[in-house]
Amino acid sequence: MRFIILHENLKEGLNNIERIIGKNLTLPILNNVLIETENSFLKLSATDLEIGITHWILTKIEEEGGIAIPAKFLTSFINSLPKEKIIFAKKDLLLDVECQNYKATIKGFSRDDFPIIPQIKEGDQVELESELFFEGLAQIASIPVLSQARPEISGIYISFTKEMIKMVATDSFRLAEKSLSVDYPLEKEYSFIIPQKTGYELLQILSDKKGKLKIYFGPDQIMFEIPMVNVQHPQTRLVSRLIEGEYPNYQEVIPQKYETQAILSKEEFLNQIRVASLFSGKINDVKIKADPKTETIEISAQNPELGENKSSISGKIKGEKQEVSFNYKFLIDGLLNLKSSEVNFELNGEDGPGVLKPVGDTSYLYVVMPIRAS
After folding, report:
1. Which of 39, 151, 213, 374 is deepest in the core (most CB within 10 A)?
2. Which domains, and CATH codes, for the chain?
3. Per the confidence metrics, is the pTM higher than 0.90?
4. pLDDT tens-digit map of 126-145
């Protein structure tokens, strides 16, 4: 195997795939990146057996072949080289690297030892704007937490209908739903749960991408593919297992009405919660007092060791007067994911969930359970 590649192209490819590679003591081959030639493309592959990522780079191939190389080491080495063209040549299980005044030989492993990354070759597929999918996923991906008892809520629920994509995530204390309107032909509806790690990898891959995203549906796997811009060929492909089980009927926890509604400045509300959080106790509680008569929200917190803090914010408030405590971390997370200057904050008493919605945007909602008074 022998090929010549630009430093920046190889660096981008390695950055796309090496994040999923950890230190695997049971299967050390998984600590490697598989480097192969494929016609006029260099093909980089990595897997942790749950997620597989492949990245293709159009480059000058002089001789076909393949080898597995320790991924973290290779990435660090390439990052240290000058931003010039790099010449790679494989001989047996050694990879010679030459770049300007640098020459190195890296020990590798047979590509036959590297696991095969499955592909979804048949079945339904959809195509949509990658920026749209990225925007929706970014608003919910951080919410799930690992649960051995309920693995289905450890992931991100995605459902496809003829005109809508819904993305949902929860940790049982809060829930976020993002709706994306799309126009594509799909013969049947799909719903599935992807691992949170898959969601994070997609966000990294899609963060600077524009154009189309292709999604292929399999019985127990899903495949996301980003095509090259000027060539009819995939650039990056991610294959992931799906989480088994049925996602909870989350619609049951979304309130259909409210007792109190407040329209507030998002930035001012967010800042006051952050200030109050400095005085919060061990359970991260801040108290919200809503008064429709004075059209103010009072935010307070107290800690026996630190003291107490109170602040107020004016807004359009209607409904009942009430006092509810929330985990400030959950409120901050919800507000940070709103893409509007104003927030619609709906309260339903000490036992009912609160809801955060962006004013002027019905595509996103964030439900958060209150902290019940002891």
Report:
1. 213
2. 2-113 (3.10.150.10), 125-251 (3.10.150.10), 254-368 (3.10.150.10)
3. yes
4. 888 999 999 999 999 999 99
